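Reopening this one. Same input as before:
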Amino acid sequence: MTSPGKLLCSSGLIVCLISCKRMLFFALMVLFLAGCTATYPVNPPLAHVDTTQGYNLRTMDEKADNHSQALVLMAFSGGGTRAAAFSYGVLKELSETYIGEDDQKRALSKEIDAISAVSGGSFTAAYYGLFGDRIFEDYEQVFLRRDVQGELTDQVTNPLNWPDLWSPYYTRADMATELYDSTIFNHATFDDLEKADGPFVIINATEMTTGTRFQFTQSFADIICTDLSQIPVARAVASSSAVPLLFSPITITNRAGECGWQKPQWAREALKSPDRTSRLYNLASSIMALDDREEHPYLHLFDGGLADNLGLRAMLDGVLRYNGITEALDSLGMRDTRNVVVILVNAETALDVESSRTMQTPTFAASIGAATSVPLQRYSFETVALLKEKLKEWEQQSYAAKCTPHSESATRNSKRSAADSDCKGVGFHFIELNFSEVKDPEERNYLKTLPTSFVLTDEAVDRLIAAGGQVLRNSSEFQRLLADTRPR
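Same output, byte for byte:
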């Protein structure tokens, strides 16, 4: 027979369990309702398009210590902290390389006019654009040597953040934005970036539903009637580095049609072309998809590497819409340009070959890695090959236009014209920097097998920074550039 004491204890336990369940249910409901209210920040509307204002290359003021006759463009690839550290090493070497006469020497880093960046490379580009030489004082501690990946994981696993993450309007990428905004970019906006004395920075992302490369410039923001000046730089960087599966996309509201934006002439003409396989038609149709608010009322931005993992497409597309390089430079107010330097910093890794050494079916992780890395590398190769072809073509166009503008055989005679002492054509330098240029095979293999993540050891960061400087110094094209800039 059960004692009264045991009955009382059992009754108390039952009451406790019922009470605890109610409390747990109530707590979960509170969390759920709190989560429903969490939302991402809505991009601010633009009342009226003004092409003379906003964050665009053509509206940027010329820097006092920048050589007006040289246009220096850099592209930083994706690749997490690996890419950020490698590009930082190149920047550091440029800051320690001087050109000009003794009494007018200036660091080559001061000559950088624009940087187009993707994913991990966008951290370095944005930081340099905002803070200039301060990057060489604190960037390693602020970003490169931090366990950013661990900090993001801690935020996601913190129960206090679960209500926000349960909301369908707030994601891990939004949480990453807040972390980057407060700990890396000091709450800077694109208005701050425009006012800074650094180079023009193009941060590239990929629109998920259309595959369009979306760049955070006011010209792109005009299409969707957004005031870019008020958007945090961290949000653009988070979009550019939102790797699928690891992060959800960054969502922005499309307000196309509310600010008086008009389809540019080049796009209207391109869309009339019967050749729908042309690059210009493809560029126009992909950009014009952003103007279709009815079909795309919201844009979801993923890692920029999905559309271009090198950052070079912004340069190629920028010229493609004009009738050659001369018209492009003229439209940007750079008609006095005599040299165009393109420096590509590519932190690509080696493809996984281990799977081909066994009969076993590749693991899920290996399959996912191959599904992303193989197409990216193949597409990157084609992009570099295309750029090299275009640089040769642009050089011929420049000499033909500036040296023999009225000659029917201008293109044919471009080499002869280039030798003419009165010729003022544009010369081009393409400097490609990657881990394949590291001479030591063991070091080369070490760098190529570093993971794409947001945490690396101090040793890895040190070796990546050193590799950036070494590869740049050893570049024959870079040495030829320095020789061309030496006083004669």
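So the earlier flakiness isn't reproducible anymore. For the record, The first helix runs from residue 4 to 37.
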